[in-house]
Write a structure and sequence with these properties.
Layout (H helix, E strand, L loop, with lengths): L11 H15 L1 H8 L5 H20 L4
Amino acid sequence: MAKIKISANEPLEKALRRFKRLCNNEGIFSDVKRSAFYDKPSDKRRRQEKKRLKVIRRYQDPQG
């Protein structure tokens, strides 16, 4: 669950911007978009495989 603390003199727009950034970093927006429609099992497997390969490539990269 994403939570932010708002100081007394902080503008609401700034706090909302921080909240949106936090939600984006935690992947909440993408999770909501993905669950808005039915996801076929084959699409789900394909997405998980792509994510798995991305992680493998990231750890095999000698520069990163």
